[in-house]
Design a protein that fits this description.
InterPro entries: ScpB_csome_segregation, WH-like_DNA-bd_sf, WH_DNA-bd_sf. The chain is an alpha+beta fold. It has eleven helices and seven strands. It has two domains: 70 residues, Winged helix-like DNA-binding domain superfamily/Winged helix DNA-binding domain (Arc Repressor Mutant, subunit A), CATH 1.10.10; 102 residues, Arc Repressor Mutant, subunit A. Strands 1, 2, 3 and 7 form a four-stranded antiparallel sheet that branches.
């Protein structure tokens, strides 16, 4: 929000009764999230409502009213975003314009690479190949980069200073993660002697990214016109 806009906006709405004030704050937050192409951060929403507004409670009330709708507001990638509910994913895929709805598909090696980057970042291509037990080619990393789920990070302090890869905010957004802290814990998987750590990483990310789930297109981001992006 611009400084001029913030100065003009009456955030506190102190002239309104409590119920009307809360309703106005709900509509402001919903409008801002609906119009945004990316998740809207808490700080941004806080600039639209009074200091007395509890944003988590406000979003909960909005979602309560959306219970009968095919979409909801979800916290992803550090902000709130409208998402189509899982049960409507197949319907959206039936639309030609929405055929690319939901997360992209990944090959086995792409999945291994993405899993390893998510948990081990920053990590170099050589380290990824060692973790995966397969050569992780530049083409694999290039495709993941083209999908926006990884990006080059700092160069590793190794001979030749290779690029180390990290995941992106888009990774969190696509897979409906609020932050990397929402990735499944690996402790139990690491204690499972029947699995290697790498298998555990892959299985854990499979679980949260629902890549092998037929209903895995849950929480598809919605664009302003209600069609997922």
């Amino acid at each position: 929000m611009s400084r001029a806009g913030a100065a003009r906006l009456d955030r506190d709405l102190s002239d309104l009764p409590d119920g009307m004030r809360w309703r106005e704050w709900m509509m402001r937050a919903e409008a801002a999230i609906f119009a945004a192409a990316r998740p809207v951060a808490r700080q941004t929403l806080a600039g639209l409502v009074g200091d007395a507004c509890h944003l988590d409670a406000l979003i909960a009330d909005i979602n309560e009213e959306l219970k009968g709708r095919p979409y909801e507001i979800v916290f992803v990638a550090g902000g709130w975003q409208f998402r189509t509910r899982r049960r409507h994913a197949e319907t959206l895929r039936a639309l030609g314009s929405a055929k690319d709805a939901g997360p992209p598909s990944f090959t086995k090696l792409e999945m291994l690479a993405l899993s390893a980057i998510a948990y081990q970042q920053p990590v170099t291509r050589a380290e990824l190949s060692r973790l995966a037990g397969h050569d992780i080619s530049r083409d694999i990393l290039g495709r993941l980069k083209s999908l926006g789920v990884i990006t080059p990070g700092p160069r590793a302090p190794q001979p030749g200073a290779p690029i180390a890869w990290v995941t992106t905010a888009r990774f969190l957004e696509v897979f409906a993660l609020g932050s990397l802290r929402d990735l499944p814990e690996l402790d139990e998987l690491e204690n499972d002697e029947t699995r290697s750590v790498d298998e555990g990483v892959e299985a854990a990310l499979d679980e949260v990214l629902w890549l092998n789930d037929e209903e895995g297109a849950d929480d598809i981001p919605c664009a302003e016109d209600g069609v997922e992006v």
